[in-house]
């Protein structure tokens, strides 16, 4: 089979796929040109950029508790970490919480973190979590 036949079969296969394939991308200019040359239309997507959030240092001599919980397909887990003013980890823990939702996972992680810190005599001066539902 000649190179031209192989090339034509590849291009035909790509065209056949393009009838059911609509790439969603904000790809580079060269990627867009490549797809356009093969008559494959791109569907523009709405690009949302996140915000970098940096861990805030607690006051000198203080400890901070950070907790988080999540759920995927109603299987939830969570964890927490206690750090000092230099970011050194004092205590950390993670656990599966069984079946539930994200809000309950976040609550369980927060509760467990506070309870275990109390049992170990750690005085927590501040706490952070990312669940606006719980914060409110």
From TrEMBL:
> What Pfam families does this protein's entry cite?
RVT_3
SUPFAM superfamilies named among the record's database cross-references: Ribonuclease H-like
Instruction: Tell me the domain of life.
Output: Eukaryota
**Domain RNase H type-1 positions:** 66-135
Molecular-function annotations in GO: nucleic acid binding; RNA-DNA hybrid ribonuclease activity
Q: What is this protein called?
A: RNase H type-1 domain-containing protein
Q: Which organism is it from?
A: Cephalotus follicularis (Albany pitcher plant)
């Amino acid at each position: 089979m000649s190179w031209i036949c192989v090339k034509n079969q590849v291009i035909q296969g790509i065209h056949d796929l393009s009838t059911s394939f609509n790439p969603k991308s904000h790809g580079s200019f060269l990627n867009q040109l490549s797809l356009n040359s093969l008559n494959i239309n791109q569907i523009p997507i709405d690009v949302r950029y996140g915000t970098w959030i940096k861990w805030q240092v607690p006051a000198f001599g203080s400890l901070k508790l950070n907790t988080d919980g999540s759920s995927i397909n109603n299987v939830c887990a969570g964890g927490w970490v206690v750090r000092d003013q230099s970011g050194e980890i004092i205590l950390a823990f993670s656990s599966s919480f069984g079946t539930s939702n994200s809000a309950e996972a976040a609550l369980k992680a927060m509760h467990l973190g506070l309870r275990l810190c109390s049992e170990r005599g750690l005085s927590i001066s501040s706490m952070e979590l990312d669940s606006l539902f719980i914060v409110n």
